[in-house]
């Protein structure tokens, strides 16, 4: 899913219902494949390129390759890229629906293959918490190696291997269960989300 307005979340409050959707709900750093290097666009490009190459090998065995075939291959690459980016390499989205009229909370994790859903009575919600987490790199030797290789190729990876700070918004239920519904490196974003949840539930 691609969220609008270049934000990692959407929040819509209407009458007695709050609908919140976000792709930013994990307080963790990415893998050694930094998001600036390896992302969904790159994955879609690699998949589309591999598929076009396979088709090219198949047709090259039976037909003489001409300029027209190269043009068709380029068009197919663009089409495959859009298909992979739109339907395959999707962002996992967390959707929270607070329905005051029916008195329930629905939390759904929307993934490529199906959904995972948790439903709870609104009365079981104890608090909207805010938390602060610091995530430090787990493999400093590996980070140094990647940075050295990048420098040898004249590439600088901004923020790679640095300590990350996350500000989270959590739903805390009376049974002690806590679910992170939003995570950001910007404290103002987390504060804004938490405030809107609290004002809606108490209002």
Spell out the blueprint of helices and strands.
Layout: E1 9-14, E2 17-22, H1 40-60, H2 67-88, E3 93-99, E4 104-110, E5 115-121, E6 125-135, H3 140-152, E7 164-173, E8 178-184, H4 187-202
Antiparallel strand pairs: 1-2, 2-3, 3-4, 4-5, 6-7, 7-8
Helix pairs in contact: 1-2
What proportion of the residues form beta strands (DSSP E)?
A: 25-35%
Helix content: 25-40%
Residue-averaged pLDDT: 80
User: Radius of gyration over alpha carbons?
Assistant: 22 Å
Question: Which overall shape is indicated by the principal axes computed on the Cα atoms?
Answer: elongated
Please identify the oligomeric state.
Answer: single chain
Largest sheet: 5 strands, antiparallel
What pattern of helices and strands is seen along the backbone?
A: EEHHEEEEHEEH
Total beta strands: 8
Uncertain parts: 30-37
User: What is the count of helical runs?
Assistant: 4
Structural class: alpha+beta
Cα-to-Cα separation, first versus last residue: 31 Å
Strand order of the largest sheet: 1-2-3-4-5
Structure at a glance:
With 203 residues, the protein is α+β, with helices and mostly antiparallel strands. It has helices at 40-60, 67-88, 140-152, 187-202, and strands at residues 9-14, 17-22, 93-99, 104-110, 115-121, 125-135, 164-173, 178-184. The longest helix is centred in the middle third of the chain and has 22 residues, at 67-88.
